[in-house]
Amino acid sequence: MKANVWVRPNRVEVRDVPDPQILNDGDAIVRITSTAICGSDLHLYDGYLPAMLPGDILGHEFMGEVVEVGAGVRKLTVGDRVVVPFPISCGRCASCQRGQFSVCENSNPNAGMAEKLLGHPPAGIFGYSHLLGGYAGGQAEYARVPYADVGPVKIEDGLPDDKVLFLSDILPTGWMGAEMCDIQPGDTVAVWGAGPVGLFAMMAARLMGAERIIAIDRYPYRLAKAERHAGAVCVNYAETSVPEALKELTAGRGPDGCVDAVGAEAHHGNAAIYAYDRTKQAARMQTDRPSALREAVLTCRNGGTVSVIGAYTGFVDKFPMGSFMNRSLTMRSGQCHVQRYLRPLLERIRIGELDPSVVISHRLRLADAPIGYEMFKNKVDDCEKVVLSAA
Ligand code: NAD
Ligand code: ZN
Ligand code: ZN
């Protein structure tokens, strides 16, 4: 089959690779109809996450048709149309039972140990390095889906791929980002990053009853989308001082909820520093660009909540702990517990309350994935979200 593989930083290639096979009774094989490129893939593309090997198949946002199931699979049959959540979780451990699927306890105690020896698929993320299970991803024609009875959600009516694909990751992630702010009527919620994740956080905040939503980014086309689809007031951080703008918009108090939907955006010189390479990279990345996280903490109203859905690894320096502690802030974060949100969000899509397809700016063939990565990384041609179709 064809698959988009990581080669080295800033280089991906579509190659012929072996088809995936059932390895465990609980696996299914899915023929992928649609898959997308995520901001999290850019962390791999930038080369700032260790443990990617040349030839590893990328991608953790995908859906398709079940073409084979293992002997133990009960809930899926060949021909079912499914969206697959990005966390690979057992569904049985204490974390999964609490609905905290992205911290499934069923991890591989000895990273790299063959799954056969381990006796079960370790928790992890599709296409997201050998630190997170070493699983092949979904930017491919087919993928193996472990715990097929736990993760995938069946799409039984005629909803098109474009409307349901983002249940795999960014829609629940944005939703969780807003949910962690415990929004009360009348609240103001500020969202750093008007990418697809930030936009969904804003749309969710609106549905949760936020009175005012503030979008912070530097790309006018992304801010315009936030205004159009979430009614956000926009702050362009390339032109305006964000702390001052937020003060002005909130009578000096600061937003009640602050969502970081940026993360360690190495390719834009955000001032986050990754732990495993603190020498040259640190010098290069310590630019005078604002750190979204630091700004969120410093501008949040006393007693408010900072919700971190942007992804980080390692240490992030210059965290304003004094301000955080003395102003009674709450911080919540996490990789999204996608499985928890699949059905409720599918229902909202079905009744027309949410249309996630508004984020799509480009549709390409799987074969053109390398072009998609470049466009999405450099935000050219008003790129917001790239969907790849395997056909
Ligand atoms: P994206 O690259 O499309 O969007 C990021 C946006 O942040 C860009 O528009 C950029 O201009 C903006 N930005 C950069 N620095 C900023 C700053 N200082 N202030 C305000 N805005 C700034 O990426 P995306 O797909 O929207 O993903 C966003 C983040 O969410 C990534 O870090 C990704 O890894 C993370 N993510 C996390 C989860 C999770 O489960 N928690 C899931 C999916 C994605
Ligand atoms: Zn993602
Ligand atoms: Zn588990």
Helix and strand sequence:
EEEHEEEHHEEEHHEHEHEHEHHEHEHEHE
Label the overall shape.
globular
Number of E-state strands: 17
> What's the CATH H-level homologous superfamily of the largest domain?
Medium-chain alcohol dehydrogenases, catalytic domain
Runs in which pLDDT lies below 50 for 5 or more consecutive residues are: 267-288
Oligomer: single chain
Enzyme class: oxidoreductase
Keywords: Metal-binding, Oxidoreductase, Zinc
Family: Belongs to the zinc-containing alcohol dehydrogenase family.
EC number: 1.1.1.-
Characterization of the model:
The structure is a single chain. With 391 residues, this protein is of the alpha/beta class. The chain folds into 2 domains: 2-169 and 337-389, Medium-chain alcohol dehydrogenases, catalytic domain (Quinone Oxidoreductase, Chain A, domain 1, Alpha-Beta Complex); 170-333, 3-Layer(aba) Sandwich (Rossmann fold), CATH 3.40.50.720. 26% of the residues lie in helices and 20% in strands. Strands 3, 4, 5, 8, 9, 16 and 17 form a 7-stranded mixed sheet that branches. A hairpin with a 2-residue loop joins strand 1 (2-8) and strand 2 (11-16). Helix 6 packs parallel to helix 7 (220-230). The radius of gyration is 20 Å and the shape is globular. The relative contact order is 0.16. Residues 89-90, 92-93, 95-96, 104-106 line the site of one zinc ion (ZN).
